[in-house]
């Protein structure tokens, strides 16, 4: 999937002679590294990357007490236990709710702000941009106490709303910068043409600009979802009620038990990973483009 | 470019009605939701941290609450060895993590930027830990490091090391163990960012270098690296700030232990406010951490000549 994007970005010059059907790569010699220089380090690194994944699968699937290095005989006992006895079913629902709400709030608010930043010059624009950048240095973890007090004041402790707001707020700055860069890449003349045709500004935006923002929206939306899905401190602090907790908090509870139930921990970990893996597979081909358009060049 | 276009208001097309009826207020309306959220939930908390830092504030000891002047700050710098310990550990943690992540991330990006059979799969697998959360990373490495059925058991089976070793509870091994766990998740971040930037290097440059007989290493040194400079500076800075601030992994993996040896400054602050309820002192610590972070970032950007001449 990524390859397609990559070759689009850096097209290898078409060879003059039609290639042989074998997928021998059409590259010139200057670009070629000896094969072993690619496969050897990549292989070693992959071992390092994949062993931990295999380890957690192994612990989740093999019966308790087994020391076999293959998950056979396979069992789903750990998953059943974690899902019902340890409340991961509820945590999962809560996490999905938080993630989806954060996704929509972040994308909508950042889209409006990003459009303003991309299309207008207004008096406080420079100051606002500076504030966005500075906010990157503000550690959410160090604001836990004042944030807790604010949410207590708003009577939102123990409600998922507090976590949704907190996650959204800390996602906003980067999302807004990212989206405004995507919007800048859409020629203003397209919108103007739509106005001439009788669209008002909102309709012109919806019909002309929005469809072109798909990669940007996907990048921002999925980052927002994955971040809030993964993030743990806000939920840990603002949700005391077991019924309201999220998956990462559940994992932490499993880990901090006196004697850790490793099988349950592994199964819980896999439950935590599934939505991320799905999102990740879905956004792969937009990932690199999204990063290069926004995050790095800021 | 886009700004220039933005200044110019639409040149009054004949039928513009609602289109730009409120063009002057529109940008403010559009940023209002974002601005309000950030004012209420970032700016206000930051200000209240500054405010509390000058006060004694502990909900469990209300009789002592009141104005403290710079008392909290003098206590930090003169009476609190833990502050210095955790600050030094934070610096060590950030420096080692970011350095190693950059090194491996750069190498990986260069490798998967080559053309080879299985590249798409290779990239997907190499990048995959990027999306794994700090807590899940901890969970995975707790499984790997546990003394009974962890990796050490199987190593011992093969005759390497001893049985029952727990790297996370030994002060001499906990640092490398935690570093490796965080590397596992951090390297893909750099690899992705650098790969994105690598794809914008003009191929002509390499071709010209090739004609001039430059070796592959020289091409890397004189073409690739200068091109990547700004991306590397920015991503190392962002990552350093992030590694400093983020407490998910250490909080869940080691809890700052054993014996406080892996407590970073933010972790210490979290413990001070959450466990000891000493909000005033924690706020002063936060202020100090914030200033240190800001100063380091400015010095770093200045020294690295970010955005300067190539």
UniProtKB/TrEMBL annotation, chain B:
<protein>
    <submittedName>
        <fullName>Carbohydrate ABC transporter permease</fullName>
    </submittedName>
</protein>
<feature type="transmembrane region" description="Helical">
    <location>
        <begin position="281"/>
        <end position="301"/>
    </location>
</feature>
<keyword id="KW-0813">Transport</keyword>
<keyword id="KW-1003">Cell membrane</keyword>
<feature type="transmembrane region" description="Helical">
    <location>
        <begin position="249"/>
        <end position="269"/>
    </location>
</feature>
<comment type="similarity">
    <text>Belongs to the binding-protein-dependent transport system permease family.</text>
</comment>
<feature type="transmembrane region" description="Helical">
    <location>
        <begin position="174"/>
        <end position="196"/>
    </location>
</feature>
<dbReference type="InterPro" id="IPR035906">
    <property type="entry name" value="MetI-like_sf"/>
</dbReference>
<feature type="transmembrane region" description="Helical">
    <location>
        <begin position="26"/>
        <end position="54"/>
    </location>
</feature>
<feature type="transmembrane region" description="Helical">
    <location>
        <begin position="93"/>
        <end position="112"/>
    </location>
</feature>
<keyword id="KW-1133">Transmembrane helix</keyword>
<feature type="transmembrane region" description="Helical">
    <location>
        <begin position="124"/>
        <end position="144"/>
    </location>
</feature>
<feature type="domain" description="ABC transmembrane type-1">
    <location>
        <begin position="87"/>
        <end position="300"/>
    </location>
</feature>
<feature type="region of interest" description="Disordered">
    <location>
        <begin position="1"/>
        <end position="20"/>
    </location>
</feature>
<dbReference type="InterPro" id="IPR000515">
    <property type="entry name" value="MetI-like"/>
</dbReference>
<keyword id="KW-0472">Membrane</keyword>
<keyword id="KW-0812">Transmembrane</keyword>
<dbReference type="Pfam" id="PF00528">
    <property type="entry name" value="BPD_transp_1"/>
</dbReference>
């Amino acid at each position: 999937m990524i390859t397609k994007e990559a070759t689009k970005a850096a097209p290898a010059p078409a060879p003059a002679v039609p290639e042989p059907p074998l997928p021998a790569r059409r590259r010139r010699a200057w670009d070629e590294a000896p094969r072993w220089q690619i496969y050897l380090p990549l292989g070693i690194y992959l071992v390092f990357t994949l062993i931990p994944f295999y380890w957690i699968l192994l612990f989740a699937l093999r019966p308790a007490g087994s020391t076999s290095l293959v998950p056979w005989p396979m069992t789903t006992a750990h998953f059943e236990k974690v899902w019902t006895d340890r409340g991961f079913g509820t945590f999962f629902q809560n996490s999905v709710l938080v993630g989806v709400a954060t996704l929509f709030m972040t994308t909508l608010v950042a889209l409006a702000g990003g459009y303003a930043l991309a299309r207008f010059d207004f008096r406080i624009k420079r100051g606002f941009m500076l504030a966005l950048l500075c906010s990157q240095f503000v550690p959410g973890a160090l604001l836990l106490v004042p944030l807790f007090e604010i949410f207590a004041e708003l009577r939102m402790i123990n409600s998922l709303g507090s976590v949704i707001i907190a996650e959204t707020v800390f996602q906003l700055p980067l999302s807004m910068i990212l989206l405004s860069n995507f919007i800048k890449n859409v020629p203003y003349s397209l919108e103007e043409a739509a106005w001439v045709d009788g669209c008002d500004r909102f309709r012109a935006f919806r019909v002309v600009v929005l469809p072109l923002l798909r990669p940007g929206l996907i990048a921002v939306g999925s980052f927002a979802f994955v971040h809030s899905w993964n993030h743990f401190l806000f939920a840990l602090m603002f949700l005391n009620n077991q019924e309201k907790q999220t998956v990462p908090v559940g994992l932490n509870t499993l880990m901090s038990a006196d004697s850790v139930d490793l099988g349950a921990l592994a199964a819980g970990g896999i439950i935590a990973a599934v939505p991320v893996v799905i999102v990740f597979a879905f956004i792969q081909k937009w990932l690199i483009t999204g990063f290069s358009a926004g995050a790095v060049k800021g | 470019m886009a700004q220039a276009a933005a200044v110019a208001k639409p040149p009054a097309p004949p039928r513009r009605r609602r289109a730009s009826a409120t063009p002057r207020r529109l940008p403010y309306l559009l940023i209002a939701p974002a601005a309000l959220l950030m004012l209420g939930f970032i700016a206000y908390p930051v200000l209240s941290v500054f405010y509390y830092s000058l006060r004694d504030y502990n909900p469990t000891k209300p009789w002592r609450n009141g104005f403290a002047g710079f008392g909290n700050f003098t206590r930090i710098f003169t009476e609190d060895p833990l502050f210095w310990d955790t600050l030094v550990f934070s610096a060590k943690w950030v420096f080692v993590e970011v350095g190693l992540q950059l090194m491996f991330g750069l190498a990986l990006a260069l490798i998967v930027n080559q053309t080879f059979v299985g590249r798409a799969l290779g990239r997907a697998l190499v990048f995959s830990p990027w999306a794994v959360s700090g807590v899940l990373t901890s969970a995975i490495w707790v499984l790997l490091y546990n003394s009974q059925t962890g990796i050490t058991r199987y190593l011992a089976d093969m005759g390497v090391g001893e049985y029952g070793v727990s790297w996370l509870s030994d002060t001499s091994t906990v640092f490398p163990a935690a570093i490796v766990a965080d590397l596992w998740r951090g390297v893909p971040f750099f690899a992705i960012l650098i790969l994105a930037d690598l794809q914008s290097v003009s191929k002509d440059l390499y071709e010209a270098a090739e004609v001039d007989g430059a070796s592959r290493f020289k091409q890397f040194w004189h073409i690739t690296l200068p091109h990547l400079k700004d991306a590397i500076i920015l991503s190392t800075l962002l990552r350093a700030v992030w590694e400093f601030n983020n407490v998910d992994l250490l909080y869940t993996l080691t809890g700052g232990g054993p014996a406080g040896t892996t407590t970073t400054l933010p972790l210490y602050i979290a413990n001070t406010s959450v466990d000891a309820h000493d909000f005033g002192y924690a706020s002063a610590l936060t202020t100090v951490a914030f200033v240190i972070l800001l100063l380091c970032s400015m010095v770093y950007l200045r020294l690295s000549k970010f955005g300067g001449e190539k």
